[in-house]
Amino acid sequence: MESSLREIVFDTETTGTNAKHDRLVEIAGVELIDLIPTGNTWQSYINPGMPVSPGAFRVHGLSNEFLRRHPPFRRVVKGFLAFVGDARLVAHNAKFDRGFLDEELSRIDMPPMANEFVDTLEVAKKVKKGGQHNLDALCRHFGIDNSRRTKHGALLDSEILAEVYLYLSGGRQFGMELVETTIDKVVTTGDYGTRAFTVRSNPDEAAAHAAFVEGLGAKAIWKRYVGGV
Asked: What is the CATH number of the domain that holds 110?
């Protein structure tokens, strides 16, 4: 029997752009099992022990005063590593995030990340030829609502990237050609605002999917999108 694929879509925020000099100020991740969000997430702000650059502050809005109230990297890293385990790590421009993680680990005499990494920026360049490939551009291309993204935030960006990753992986097309009877239904979501979806499934498939989503738990991200379908 083929084992399930566990992945963590993650993102970081930093004091600047130079991993050798700058520090992490936030890290977060979203768990996927076989491309399905489970609702299991992890997030922490980090006291970098140095000032946030003006440019970085304009991006994420995390002030020095706010960050001073949070623990340093050495006190949060074990929680992050426990959450990640041996899962495949997915990030947009993964070289940047991995570089910061490895530098932070090196400063506290810990080995670099040994996990497999997937860079959605590189995947996007292969899937979507030409144009921009930043997260906002990919949301526009795939019709993903990112209206809440007024500032960069590691957890929100991880959730948005998880949806982009599903499109990049072809997940939105799985099984579509095999469905003989479809149900068109408008679904309204909660935390993500009101959005219209077309549910292409027959009644038996819809019931099976509803039972599966219910089994994911009360915090499953799918419940924000399907509204009990």
From this structure: 3.30.420.10
For residue 202, pLDDT over 80 is answered with no
Q: Is 93 left (phi over 0), alpha (psi -120 to 50) or beta?
A: left
Domain that holds residue 214: 175-226
From CA 135, how far away is CA 146, in angstroms rounded? Answer: 9
Query: Do 140 and 59 share a structural domain?
Result: yes
170-198 burial: b if 16+ Cβ within 10 Å, else e: eeeeeeeeeeeeeeeeeeeeeebeeeeee
Quote the crossing angle between the two packed helices 154-168 and 135-142, to the nearest 10°: 50
pTM: 0.73
Annotated active-site positions, please?
152
Reduce the DSSP state of residue 164 to 3 states and report it: helix
Cα distance between residue 162 and residue 37, in whole Å: 8
pLDDT reported for residue 130 = 87
Task: With respect to residue 1, please indicate whether it lies within any of the assigned structural domains.
Answer: no
User: How confident is the prediction for the chain on average, in pLDDT?
Assistant: 82
Q: With CA atoms as reference, report the closest residue to 31 among 86, 84, 72.
A: 84
Q: Do residue 179 and residue 86 come from a single domain?
A: no
Rounded to an integer, the average pLDDT of 174-186 is 35
